Amino acid sequence: MDRKRRTLITTGAAAAAAAAAPRAFAQSQATTKGKSAMPFYQKGDVRIHYQEAGSGYPLLIIPGGGLNASISFLTERAPFNAMEEFKSEYRCIVPDLRNAPSGQSTGPLEIDRPWDSHTDDHVGLMDHLGIKRFMVLGYCIAGPFTWNLIKRAPDRVVAAVIAQPVGFRPEAPTVMYDNSMANWTGEFLKKRPEITKEQVERYLTRMYRTNPDFVFTVTRDFVKSCQVPILVMPDDIPSHPYAAAMEQVMLSPKSEVSFYPWKEKKEMIPVAVRQVRSFLKAHRPAA
Predict the structure, then answer these.
(1) Residue 177 near residue 209 (C-beta atoms within 8 A)
(2) The pTM of the whole model exceeds 0.90
(3) Domain boundaries of the chain, sorted by first residue
(4) Which of 16, 191, 241, 252 could form an S-S bond across to 169 if both were Cys, CB 3.0 to 4.6 Å?
(5) What number is the average pLDDT over the span 154-181?
(6) Which CATH architecture has domain 49-283?
(7) Nearby residues of 162 by Cβ (< 8 Å), 6 or more positions away
């Protein structure tokens, strides 16, 4: 009887383990997939990769780096990582720019409407997430993007921080075009062999040379009439002209400006971040 009982118990345990194994394997696979899955927003031929962190009032973070702008900018090149700084207070959303070679977002090269195509992606992403109104914090090329976003959706942008904004520099009128040709075009064409260099040249011409003035996306009259609170954090390198940044401050009726220079010395950056935090808090709508 003891031998029979041992045999039955052993056999039953083995059967139970065999039955449980597929379930455990499936659960393990689901967990692995959950950890590795990257969120995407897709509309037609456009596929935008984005990340979220934190909770609270929505804060759209637009990375810098020209047409190479991707989420990795925050950890690799940004003066401060806005997602890390503000995720304890805000629902931070940061997308890869469409067709940035270092990112995961892809879509058509809309030659006749380069700025608006990216604004479509920003608005579409917020629609996808069910977010009506939000704040914006952007770096570098996000300056023109933010102004265009305000122009396209003035009732949705509550307030905006523009750090190191791109603008037109009269003494170097082709610097943005030249930088994009040198630092973006080659890698982009490797990923998209169906697109020709001539198409890229037309795209960049439309973006930076067709109307080369001020902030590329809006007029001075628009900035004068803008009622959205803006905090500008000036820089002064060829693609981030100080004069254009300060002109935005002087024209916008609800503008503020950070101290300058704010990022040349590492110990000054936390002071600048405190100013950003105060600005966002002052303009964040009540829950």
Answers:
(1) yes
(2) no
(3) 49-283
(4) 241
(5) 97
(6) 3-Layer(aba) Sandwich (3.40)
(7) 138, 142, 143, 146, 230, 231, 232, 233, 245, 248
